[in-house]
Amino acid sequence: MTPTPSILELLDHLAHQSAKRSYAPYSGRQEGAVLLLEDGAVIHGCRVENASFQLTIGALDNAWSTAHAVGRMDVAAVAFSGPWSESDKAFLHGLPHLDWAFPAASVAVVSDDLPEPAESLQPLLPDWGDDPVLGAQAARSAADLAWVPESDFPVGTVVRTRGGHHVPGVNVEHPDWHRVLCAERNALSTLVAYGYESASEIHVSCIKDPGGSPCGACRQVIVELAPRATVWMDRIDQPPVSMQSSELLPGSFTGATLRKHTL
């Protein structure tokens, strides 16, 4: 049996819908991806650019890291808004325990018997308000879902949006280290892919390093995508401490003169 054309066409349509949420002020290049889970739920991803071009998050990486953050790795298929690049095919083939087939130029499957795509999975945690202690606990719990076979250094993040949504993120590693995504970038790219409100708070927990804080790459992305957020850092046995995102990277590169497209 091969996947029915109607399901492949619907996945292609959903990937193109996801592409419309891309944050691409530098290239204007919209790219989208969706994961189809075994129960028919759909996870979305889109291209999220950065003024530091090499920190751009691809649509596939976006969707895949979101799936890890919500603990849903029962993936049946992946669709992209254009033909697969060799880089994205290599990403898929580098994932453990999954044997991919490519029945269409923009779809990869691990099963021929695909479910009908159903509702979009909303990657949200219960609303615990704005208590930074509860935020630290939520980020700590999220870290349990990190995929860190290379470093054994799990990190969890929860972003609270200005509309009161709570979005998790975890670090997700890959044999190709260029495709590793940190927890903070995971959560922020999920905000973009789902069209949630901008971040008001970012809670970060490095459960093996109570003194940990966002890395330089995450700081650059936070400054661009969440410029007015408060970043709370879990200190495990001590109260969490905070900084404004603008304090994370003094003199950060804005890329203002690189912007070619309005948002």
Question: What descriptors fit this protein?
Answer:
single chain; 263 residues; Cytidine Deaminase, domain 2; five-stranded antiparallel sheet; 7 helices; 22% strand
Condensed summary:
This protein is of the alpha+beta class. The protein has helices spanning 5-19, 59-69, 86-93, 132-142, 183-194, 216-225, 245-248; strands at residues 32-37, 42-46, 75-80, 101-104, 107-109, 155-161, 166-170, 199-206, 230-235, 238-244. The strands form 2 sheets. Strands 2-1-3-5-4 form a 5-stranded antiparallel beta sheet.
Topology:
Layout lengths: L4 H15 L12 E6 L4 E5 L12 H11 L5 E6 L5 H8 L7 E4 L2 E3 L22 H11 L12 E7 L4 E5 L12 H12 L4 E8 L9 H10 L4 E6 L2 E7 H4 L15
Parallel strand pairs: 8-9
Antiparallel strand pairs: 1-2, 1-3, 3-5, 4-5, 6-7, 6-8, 9-10
Helix pairs in contact: 2-5
